[in-house]
User: Fold Phosphomannomutase/phosphoglucomutase from Amycolatopsis balhimycina DSM 5908.
Amino acid sequence: MPDLSSIVKAYDIRGVVGEQLDADLVRDFGAAFALLIKPEAPSVVIGHDMRDSSPALSAAFAEGVTSQGLDVVSIGLASTDQLYFASGSLNMPGAMFTASHNPAKYNGIKLCRAGASPVGQDTGLAEIRDTVEQGVPGFEGQRGSVTERDVLAGYAAYLNNLVDLSGSRPLKIVVDAGNGMGGHTVPTVFAGLPIEVVPMYFELDGSFPNHEANPLDPANIVDLQAKVREVGADAGVAFDGDADRCFIVDERGEPVSPSAITALVAVRELAKDPGGTIIHNLITSKGVPEIVSEHGGKPVRTRVGHSFIKAEMARTGAIFGGEHSAHYYFRDFWRADTGMLAALHVLAALGEQNGPLSELTSAYSRYAASGEINSTVDDQVAKMMAVKDAFGARTGVEIDELDGLTVQLPGGAWFNLRPSNTEPLLRLNVEAANTDAVRGLVDEVLALIRS
Assistant:
């Protein structure tokens, strides 16, 4: 039996095309997915990104699905949140072919049940992996059919119905699509809005010739920052490869923390639904729950990862959720993440007042943060214990292990140290009152990790 543990991740399937993923294997994944969801639905909706391998792999997956007697609705080129829209609006399980921000040689599959409900290790992915490893059973009945459907206009209309920009002042926005799927969705979503879009790298190109489509890496927003300053734009927006995440820079070209965006959008959602619950993961700024509470909302803290966020949103009936990785989740979007909807909220807030974005977002940025700092280590557990022992011996320190190690220090500073699920890395996030305090705490923790 093949061992698929290296490519079946916590939330998706992902690997190097030609080495770990090929059409035959993907066909088996399609058949196994069909077996999983056959009791629930007669059809599966499939979309794919602009990577060279995506059309053939998505077609192979469709063959696997139809081989088990289920039908396929193909929406072709799509962003991941466009696939979630299709899954939600058509009430079908879905499969999205993308490796998000990973380099060109990778591809992968994100799966969901009807209504964009996520399929992760604990909700079907492990079962799919086992089925493929053991051999997919044959099906003697009639094969399913494949039909094509264009949902881009419906996706755009749905988002524009959720955020009204008709009263906005005219805005000039630079959008860096990173040669990813934002180049496909932005022109339709922004058509007719009082927004002048200055496009960057809208050409769909899975080789990513300009920069990696990962806007959380500062090196990948340098071009956007320069263009915003050059054209005198009101803001800049960068999307990752499958356009489910967005990253914002202000009129000065300065990055706006995803925690500040989470707080800003939360306040707007609470204005529509007073007293609502807002989900935030444990590495977002502590300013997020403070602001949510001040606006009458109920903040709920969760582990990192979209399956945890979505599960907690379902459990609590939350209206919105945000992660510091720039994933934003909306009850009104089937609890799925959509960077495009978050971007529209930011632009609507900006267009409703006359001040610059830097002034608007300053109210939501209360503390200094390090951003994620990765360290390669041989023994993650031993290093985590060394940090826990060093800080746990101090007076007034509070420690919890909801996700990795979160250490709260007297005076308000805190840090989280988490092991990577897929690499020999420890990920450190630090927040404190000012940059000097952040730098001091970072140096202290890294000295323990890297010694």
Notes: The chain has a mean pLDDT of 96. The chain has four domains: 13-150, 154-253, 258-362, 368-449.
